[in-house]
Amino acid sequence: MNQNIINARVTFRNSPIHILERFTIRDLENAYDQFKEHSGLDECVIIQTCNRIELFGKAQNYDINKIKKTWASLTGLEEEAFKENIEFVENGEALHHLLKLTSGLDSMVVGEEQILGQIKNSITAARNAKASGQHLNNLFDKAIRIGTRIRNSTGINRGGISVGSMAVKLAEENIDELKLKKILLIGTGEVSTLVAKSLGRRGYDFVVTSRTLQRSQAFCETMGGKPIKFEEVLSGFEKYDVLFVATTAPYFLVTQERIIKAMKERKNGMMILDLSNPRTVDEKVATVGRVKLMNLDQIAEMVEKNMKTRLNKVKSVENIISEELSVLEASMKRLDAEPLVKDVFKNIDSLREKELQKALQMLNEKDEKKIK
């Protein structure tokens, strides 16, 4: 490839959640500007989920150290932090990784649907920010189509469990008579949607809060649950037996101080599941008596128990990816060659015009009129 496609990533595979969240990029529009200005990237797309932060880029010449330095400046990290946590691949390996992402093969829950939607949102955001261009737009569009086709043909997205339903299953395993308990869901995003779907399917009543009551109301209209004011929740955690926290905030929403206060007014224990990245529950909450705190790292343990059906299909998916990869690489090479081909035809047209003019000059007026 004349143009290099690169992928730099920090994921759950090599970084626990408390490390992973430190690499989260808060201001995406600024990040796109910084990566393009300081890292030698002509195009870039950033994918951020609760299990990964990834950068895809296109460049003729790039410097991985400049990419790390830019990423570090955006997150306030030292460059040293990237040594053990970042993975970097380029060209064929980068394309292969993207196909694994869109097919669900690289997810914590193999075949899960959520990542495909997140990738679609990521390329849309990059397009809107004018950060991606012809190469990455083309690559992501094709990878999304291939990923969808793989899921439909192999069924790898069927017969498994989502992050949301895993969280609910954990609550069921740890709390007796969950249907009699008071359940709170904080957040109205994608993970909250998965939790709400799972709670609804199992027939659990729950309340939902978000920063605005209107958002909670809109969420409950489609996903079920009862909306409640955010302020009421923050001052009244003692009312709830189970908290599912799946939101974003630059600070801890559920603090040790608030939970200590709540537990003084409760006879029974409390379970808190933090599905946020970065975390929005202070880990010190786990030290409060009668409180059980679980986060995304611990959910990984349940993945192993629920993936047998899907894991049997992994080989089929890998075979299809290998076949599609060569087609995708050829497509990207053609894209690289387009400007060259255009130049060749432009030169041919120019040369033909010159030769025609020469020939016309050598003819008399009568012959010239015949040709025209």
Automatic annotation (TrEMBL):
Domain named Tetrapyrrole biosynthesis glutamyl-tRNA reductase dimerisation: residues: 317-371
Positions contributing to NADP(+) binding: 187-192
Positions of substrate binding: 49-52, 107, 112-114, 118
Site residues by UniProt (Important for activity): 97
Pathway as given in its UniProt record: Porphyrin-containing compound metabolism; protoporphyrin-IX biosynthesis; 5-aminolevulinate from L-glutamyl-tRNA(Glu): step 1/2
Ranges of residues in domain Glutamyl-tRNA reductase N-terminal: 10-154
Keyword tags: NADP, Oxidoreductase, Porphyrin biosynthesis
SUPFAM superfamilies linked to this entry: Glutamyl tRNA-reductase catalytic, N-terminal domain (SSF69742), Glutamyl tRNA-reductase dimerization domain (SSF69075), NAD(P)-binding Rossmann-fold domains (SSF51735)
Catalytic EC class: oxidoreductase
GO molecular function: glutamyl-tRNA reductase activity; NADP binding
Pfam families given in the database record: GlutR_dimer (PF00745), GlutR_N (PF05201), Shikimate_DH (PF01488)
Enzyme Commission number(s) of this protein: 1.2.1.70
Domain Quinate/shikimate 5-dehydrogenase/glutamyl-tRNA reductase, first and last residues per copy: 169-301
Catalytic residues identified in the record: 50 (nucleophile)
Signal peptide: none
Classification via InterPro entries: 4pyrrol_synth_GluRdtase, 4pyrrol_synth_GluRdtase_dimer, 4pyrrol_synth_GluRdtase_N, GluRdtase_CS, GluRdtase_dimer_dom_sf, GluRdtase_N_sf, NAD(P)-bd_dom_sf, Shikm_DH/Glu-tRNA_Rdtase
GO aspect biological process, one term: protoporphyrinogen IX biosynthetic process from glutamate
The reaction(s) this protein catalyses: (S)-4-amino-5-oxopentanoate + tRNA(Glu) + NADP(+) = L-glutamyl-tRNA(Glu) + NADPH + H(+)
PANTHER family reported in the protein's UniProt record: GLUTAMYL-TRNA REDUCTASE
Family membership noted in the UniProt record: Belongs to the glutamyl-tRNA reductase family.
Name of the protein described by the UniProt record: Glutamyl-tRNA reductase
Native organism taxonomy: Archaea, Nitrososphaerota, Nitrososphaeria, Nitrosopumilales, Nitrosopumilaceae
